[in-house]
Amino acid sequence: MALLKIRNLTVEFETATGLFRAVDSIDVDVEQREVLAIVGESGSGKSVSMLAFMGLLPPTARITADEMMFDGRDMLTMSARDRRAIIGHDISMIFQEPISSLNPSFTCGYQVEEVLARHLGLSGKAARTRALELFDSVGIPEPERRLNSYPHQLSGGQCQRVMIAMAIACKPKLLIADEPTTALDVTIQKQILDLLMALQEEQGMGLIMITHDMGVVAETADRVSVQYQGKKLEEADVLQLFENPQHPYTRALLAALPENATGDRLLTVADGWEGQL
Predict the structure, then answer these.
(1) Which parts of the sequence belong to the ABC transporter domain (predicted)?
(2) Which parts of the chain are beta strand (E)?
């Protein structure tokens, strides 16, 4: 049984000129312990599809799907209360831009302890001890002192580690990482990716890596889903996709990698494929 199974998901938003379809009839499957990369440029519907699955889009969003199953449970017919119990416990998400995702009014330790209180019923010393263990496990230096730090007192990489600590606090079955390295410098990016992969292996989670970076895909994924303008264009095992991409857009993404440069300039994603959808 698949950990996650979504069929024919469509998401639309009302605009001044009519309905805008951000996600167009896509399917998503994730197995236990599998790493699925959802790749595509900005605006391709990667994040929106996962936010729709988690029920985190505004009420004005129009969401339809034929099937939306998680760990044998029907997310389409589930009550809002049951969904809230799952989100943050069995399903967690690491959002883009960690500094803006954390509440600036509360210490980092308090924000992790809040997750532990909400989903595991921990409080007081027990919550503090567990938060300290989490900070240590994600490699935050001087973890006891950082529990009392506010987000603005930490670096971007440290804030991302706090977000990861919050996301894994309840040992979720599925972790969704939404562009987890975008705002970080190259050295810190590698550290964060290594940390995520180590945690995924250690805890046996399913992992969805949302990214526009084919280099991240190569380092992390078992399987890759390529999206463009809300549509899924291609899906394959990572080695198969890199060695034999089938869709012109996928070939354009790979050709735009610096290591694939030929001549005196880099190709852009748009070179030579638009109009072939």
Answers:
(1) 4-254
(2) 4-15, 18-30, 35-39, 62-64, 67-70, 73-74, 91-94, 174-178, 206-211, 223-228, 231-237
The Cα–Cα gap between 248 and 269 comes to 10
Domains and CATH numbers, the chain: 32-64+75-223 (3.40.50.300)
| Assigned token pair, 86 | 């799952």
Q: Report the predicted TM-score, pTM, of the whole model to 2 decimal places.
A: 0.89
* Amino acid at position 110, single letter: Y
Contact residues for 107 (Cβ-Cβ < 8 A; gap 6+): 147, 148, 149, 150
Could you count the other beta carbons within 10 Å of the beta carbon of residue 103?
12
Question: Of 186 and 217, which is predicted with more confidence?
Answer: 217
- Name the CA dihedral angle for 83, 74, 5, 222, rounded to a multiple of 10 degrees: 40
From 101-110, 113-122, 145-154, 260-269, the region with the lowest mean pLDDT: 260-269
Look up residue 136 and give its two tokens.
């240590």
Integer Cα distance of 214 and 250 in angstroms: 10
Is the confidence at residue 161, as pLDDT, over 70?
Answer: yes
For 205, the 3-state DSSP assignment is coil
Which pLDDT value is given to residue 53? 92
Q: List the structure tokens of 137.
A: 């496990």
What's the pLDDT score for residue 268? 56
- The secondary structure of 148-201 as a DSSP string is T--GGGS-HHHHHHHHHHHHHTT--SEEEEESTTTTS-HHHHHHHHHHHHHHHH
